[in-house]
Amino acid sequence: MVNKLMVVFLGTDILFAMCGGLLIGFSLMAESTMRASPTIANVAQNLLLSRCPLTAGVVNAIFVFLTFILSLPALWLPQNRSWLRAQGWLIVFCAIFTLCLGISIWYGTLTTRSNLGTLWAKESPLTQSLLQQKFNCCGYVNSTSPPFVQDSTCTNSLVAAQKGGCISAFSSFANGYLDLIFTAAFGIVGLDVLLILCVAMVLKYRQEQERYRHIDEKNGLGGL
């Protein structure tokens, strides 16, 4: 029974560390992608990633790794509970941190259209043109608001008016893309909660073992 409990605890702890790797890997790769030259393939993702808390994701991952390292003495010292308690509190901190990141991204999806409109207006004609080519549309709300950028997709005013604005296609893409990100963040929080439960079970087991050990010691002294 003990071995099964510790195997589950160790396995969940390793998954917890892997989630830290996922956080820092995604954040660093996203920042690297954002520094690359914009293309039709990456322009929409880069704009959305620029609104994500990537630096906070790196900080969160660092705390995850520190928490995992702190769990190693808890495994090597089977009679010690202090390391487990410290790990438990750090896991709670990491879970709240990740939850806040996920909620921040989720909240952004509630105002996607207005946020993207502001974002579109700030971008260069090149970026707007790439977005028009990606979503086969002209302008944001429509071809005149704001005015479309003339390119291979929007060759003239008549074609631009027929294609319509990018607001619907861009918003739909943004919602789907951001949904994946904050759903992954909430999934990591779920794993954090599972690890907290594992820590609680190991703490309870070690507390019971310590109580039985004290009882045995008292019985031994009494017999002498």
UniProtKB/TrEMBL annotation:
Keywords: Membrane, Transmembrane, Transmembrane helix. This is Tetraspanin. One of its GO terms (cellular component) is membrane. InterPro entries: Tetraspanin_EC2_sf. The chain crosses the membrane at residues 7-29, 54-77, 89-109, 180-203. SUPFAM superfamilies: Tetraspanin (SSF48652). The keyword Cytoplasm does not apply.
